[in-house]
Amino acid sequence: MKHLILLLVALLSLTGCAMFEQEEPFQESTEENRILVSADASLTDVLPEIISAFEASHPYITVDVNYGGSGKLSQQIQQGAPVDLFLSSNQEWMNVLEEEDVIVKESRSNFIGNKLVIISNKESSLSLPTIHSLLDTSVSSIAVGDPITVPSGTYAKEALQSQGVWDQIENKLVYTNDVRQALQYVETGKSNVGVVYASDAASSKQINVLTEINKKLHTPIVYPAGVTSYSTNRHDAESFIDFLNTEEATEIFESYQFININNRK
C-alpha cells in the first residue's frame, strides 16, 4: 500500500509539472513559428516596418519575406515554393492560384490599395501633364513593368490603351521585372520616364512625379493576401493577415502613400 501511495504522489508531481509547462504565455520562436511571405516588390519599403510591429505583438512568430513581381511569385508558388503567405498587388494572380487550389479561398483578404503615377528623373525638365504627353518626342524611353507578369505594367497598359496611347508608344517601352526596377531605371537615367505606383515614387528622392493616372482608366489597384494550401503554419499566416487589416498597419501603409480601402480609422 505504501508503494502505491508513493507512485500516485510521483504521478501527480509529473502531471503538475506538465500543466505548469503548458501555462507558459508563449514559446520561443522555432521553425514551426516561422512564416515565409512572398510579397509584391512594391511592398519592399513598407513591409519591414509592418513586420516589426507585428513581431512586437506576436513575439513567438518570425516573418521572412521574398520580394518580386506578383506574376513571377505566383509561378513560384504554383511550382511548390515553400511559401506560407502570398501578398499580391492585383487580384488576377491570386485568382489563378485560388482556381488551382493553391490558395485557401477562405483566407483571402484585401488589405490596402495604391495608384499609378508617371515619373521622370529629378534632374529632368520634362513636363507631362497628361497621358497623351507620352507621345511627345521628348519622351524617348518609358520604363514599365512587363504587363504579362507585373501588375503595375498591367494597370498601365489598361490605362494607356483606354486612351489610345499604348500602341503609339510601344517602341518606347522598356519592360522591367518588377515595379521597383522601373523606378530604378528612371533614377539611373536608363529611361527618362517611368510608370510606377505612388508608393514607389514616394520612396525615392531622385525622381519627380509628373502626373497621376486617373484611377478610372484601369482596374482598381487592390492588394489581396492569401495563405497557400500547403502552408505548414496556416494559423500564424492568418494572424499576419489579420494584422494587415488593423488600424495600426493601415496607418503605417498610409505613411508610405498606400491607400486605405477599408475605411479603418
TrEMBL record:
Residues engaged in binding molybdate: 42, 70, 179, 197
GO biological process: molybdate ion transport
InterPro entries listed in its UniProt record: ModA, ModA/WtpA
Keywords from the UniProt entry: Metal-binding, Molybdenum, Signal
Residues passing through the membrane, by range: none
Gene Ontology MF terms in the entry: metal ion binding; molybdate ion binding; tungstate binding
Xref: Pfam families: SBP_bac_11
Tagged with keyword Metal-binding: yes
Claim: Zinc is one of the keywords in the record: no
Domain of life of the organism encoding this protein: Bacteria
Region forming the signal peptide: 1-18
Similarity-based family: Belongs to the bacterial solute-binding protein ModA family.
NCBIfam families cross-referenced by the UniProt entry: modA
Protein's name in the database: Molybdate-binding periplasmic protein
Species, as recorded: Virgibacillus massiliensis
